[in-house]
Amino acid sequence: VERENVQKRTFTRWINLHLGKRKPPLKVKDLFIDIQDGKILMALLEVLSGQKLMHEYKSSTHRIFRLNNIAKALKFLEDSNVKLVSIDAAEIADGNSSLVLGLIWNIILFFQIKELTGNLNRNSSSSSLSSGPSGPESDTSHPSTPSVERNMSITVKDQRKAIRALLIWVQRKTRKYGVAVQDFASSWRSGLAFLAIIKAIDSTLVDMKQALEKSSRENLEDAFSIAQNKLGVPRLLEPEDIMVESPDEQSIVTYVAQFLEHFPELEGEDFTDPDKELPIESTYVHIKDTPSEKEGKILILSESEENMYTVNHERSHPAPPKVHIRDTPE
Question: What InterPro entries does the record tag this protein with (predicted)?
Fold first, then answer.
């Protein structure tokens, strides 16, 4: 239930960001209710696709017209090569919470995340992410087998590829600050991953040494506030959404993708060579996050790159939680 509530809040904020671009703008108050007549859905797709859909909308309290509106929106998605599985107009018109969230996630995945990570792919010869309907994963390769099972496998495959590409981008932006991001769930609870992305965009906005002395709640609040006020990245999450045992992956992915959307110039700067070793540019380094094969001896560069240090620790003893590198060699 809590995961569903987090998704509802995150997706509602994301939808309102786009509906605010309309003239006149629209706003969702309760996603599960407001989506039931098809107007919000059509308006959202119109903004995202740049195509006209609202002329198809028929305002009515009668269920048959509401179903018709939603069916037209779903047909538009299918024609756009958005794979929808087990989602029909009746379930959306009835406000089925899990299917409404599933529908919005598919829209986010296709119109934002897949497109953004597709741009990463175009900047990287090492990635195999398909960036459009003409790619190797599209239906055109097997036009005669439109089975539900096949649609499901492609949807999962595309989703995993897109999220994996975004994760690699995040890892390359955060690891030089000593932050290890393994997933879009528990890796974000401390708030350090969000702060590291911000620092990668503008190093003057975040002090990672200070962040290590703060609580998770403080770091999360700092990250969301700085991102919105200094970088113009809309706030889709609250600290309470992340400070749980299993943070919602889809909500975090939706939020993190905005950084890539707002700062596309960061895309290819170090993504094109995934095997390239990047220096760790941090005063504090988390030894426990270092790959085991490199755990015995760790090379560390200061942020100014003027001083170089080698840290040794006995493999037979537990690694310390963190190491403080002073500004002077001793």
Answer: Actinin_actin-bd_CS, CH_dom, CH_dom_sf, CLMN_CH_second, LINC-complex_assoc
Considering only the C-alpha atoms of the chain, give the largest distance between any 2 of them, rounded to a whole number of Å. Answer: 78
- Rounded distance between C-alpha atoms, residue 23 and residue 216, angstroms: 39
Domain ranges of the chain: 1-122+152-267
- Residue 165's alpha-carbon distances to 118, 162, 195, 233, in angstroms, are 9, 5, 20, 20
Angle, CA of 250, 178 and 186, to the nearest 5° = 30
Question: Where does residue 14 rank: exposed (0-12), middle (13-18), buried (19+ CB within 10 A)?
Answer: buried
Residues 214 and 279 sit within 8 Å (Cβ to Cβ): no
pLDDT band at 122; cut points 50, 70, 90: low
Spatial distance between the Cα atoms of 202 and 94, rounded to a whole number of angstroms? 45
Looking up tokens 């995993």 gives 160
| Token output for 13 | 């904020």
Q: Which amino acid is at 159?
A: Q
Beta bridge partners of 285: 323
Distance CA 28, CA 78 (A): 24
Name 306's Cβ contacts closer than 8 Å, sequence gap at least 6.
none
Return the H-helix or E-strand segment holding 312: strand 308-312
Answer for the pair 104, 19: CB distance below 8 angstroms, yes or no: no
Quick one: pLDDT band at residue 111, thresholds 50, 70, 90? Answer: confident
Taking the CA atoms of residue 149, residue 155, residue 157 and residue 163 in that order, the dihedral angle to the nearest 10 degrees is: -160
What's the first-to-final CA gap in the chain, in angstroms? 53
The alpha carbon of 99 is separated from its chain's Cα centroid by a whole number of angstroms, namely 20
- At 285, is the secondary structure helix, strand, or coil? strand
* Residue 250 three-state SS: helix
Structure tokens at 173: 């932006």
Can you read off the two tokens belonging to residue 25? 């703008």
The DSSP bridge partners found for residue 324 are 284
Which comes out higher in pLDDT, residue 157 or 113?
Answer: 113
Class of the CATH domain delimited by 1-122+152-267? mainly alpha
